[in-house]
Amino acid sequence: MSFDKIRKHFPVVNHSIYANTAAIGLLSDQLLEWRQEYDLDFLIGGSSSKMESFKRISDTRQTVGDFFGCKRDNVALVPNFSLGLNMVLEGLDKNHEVLLLETDYPSVNWPFESRNFSIMYTKIDQHLEQHIEEKLSSGSFSVLALSLVQWDNGIKIDLDFLKEIKRNYPEVLIIADGTQFCGAYDFNFESSGIDILGASAYKWLLAGTGCGFMLFSDAIQQQLTLKTTGFNSANSNLESKGKFRFAKHLEPGHLDSMSFGSLDFSLKMLSDTGLPAIEAHNRKLMKKAKEEFGNLGLLKDEILFRNDHSTIFNLIGDDRLYHYLEEQNVCCSQRGGGIRLSFHIYNTENEIDRIAEFLKSAPGKLTTTKK
């Protein structure tokens, strides 16, 4: 499916420039139609639709595994990344020394901080990978936890660098949040060097709220002692208490079959488009945005001087500029002291040109001092 045809399935883009996927991905008319049919089946069928719901959850687990290159049995379905990580950390020995990134997403850092792990931090700038390498080489860290893409400014970790870290420091557990990454780029979990990858699916995966996942390497399962459990972990089988597979510890209770059916639907839609094609499209948007906003002096050095970047950009700008963009029907967010714009498969290079023209004609003098 061409990206022009994809765009037609997202009505929001007909009345605004939607540059806010980093806040929430759009609902497609196709997914809306599927959800309406789902509700109608339940309305008419009642409990007779229950077994079909169980099958839908199982199908979603397989779809997630296929989509991200992870064994089905190593996939846990969770309502969101935050809950998933908190359950995981209850099973992680508190003697670990943890390396985190300053100003990373709170749901990455706070769960470690609240459990009194030994923690050190490294800063996020154009030399991010170098900072991480220096910390790992000089310390005794056993856990590196980070977002693959930073939520406020879009800095994207070099995935080849993570593979190198795993080769050079095989004892270091790599735990990653893919919420601002998954769905925007082609990715294979098993070859990534990452031990645990989690994500909420309401952003770039376009699946709506209430669904997410955690992916586990085979090796990490020997290093965690997960405590969460419930009847759903055993697939409602009394005889299976304590005998279920590792990932089912993160599914102690029933899961919302509509939410996870939505995830299954959206992953299949993205698969039909093709992750390599989606990544190529998003890279074009990234290069266009970096050039246009960089030429206007609205990007900080930490963005300008990196070879690669995501499609999330934080523009230097105040409340006045933000409200001006809103008046031009540009949907964006205020984050990190600036204005966050984010682009996905329903965006075009022409929209970035239009935003650049709005910025050039903004009332008053643009703030262009890099900080």
Structural write-up:
- By secondary structure, the protein is α/β, with parallel strands linked by helices.
- It has two domains: 3-26 and 275-360, Aspartate Aminotransferase, domain 1, CATH 3.90.1150.10; 32-272, 3-Layer(aba) Sandwich (Aspartate Aminotransferase, domain 2).
- The protein contains twelve helices and twelve strands.
- The strands form three sheets. The protein has a seven-stranded mixed sheet, sandwiched between helices. It has a three-stranded antiparallel sheet with strand order 9-12-11, with helices on one face. A two-stranded parallel ribbon has the order 1-10.
- Helix 4 (81-89) packs parallel to helix 5 (106-113).
- The chain is globular and about 70 Å long.
- The two termini are 42 Å apart.
Please name the defining characteristics of this protein.
371 residues; 12 strands; single chain; Aspartate Aminotransferase, domain 1; 12 helices; seven-stranded mixed β-sheet; Aspartate Aminotransferase, domain 2; three-stranded antiparallel β-sheet; 38% helix; 2 domains; alpha/beta
User: What value does the Rg take, in angstroms?
Assistant: 21 Å
E-strand count:
12
User: Helix amount, in percent?
Assistant: 25-40%
Q: What does the oligomeric state look like here? A: single chain
Strand content: 5-15%
| Tally of DSSP helical segments | 12
At CATH's second level, what is the architecture of the largest domain? 3-Layer(aba) Sandwich
Outline, from the CA principal axes?
A: globular
What does the largest sheet look like?
7 strands, mixed
Please name the fourth-level CATH homologous superfamily of the largest domain: Type I PLP-dependent aspartate aminotransferase-like (Major domain)
Order of adjacent strands in the largest pleated sheet: 2-8-7-6-5-3-4
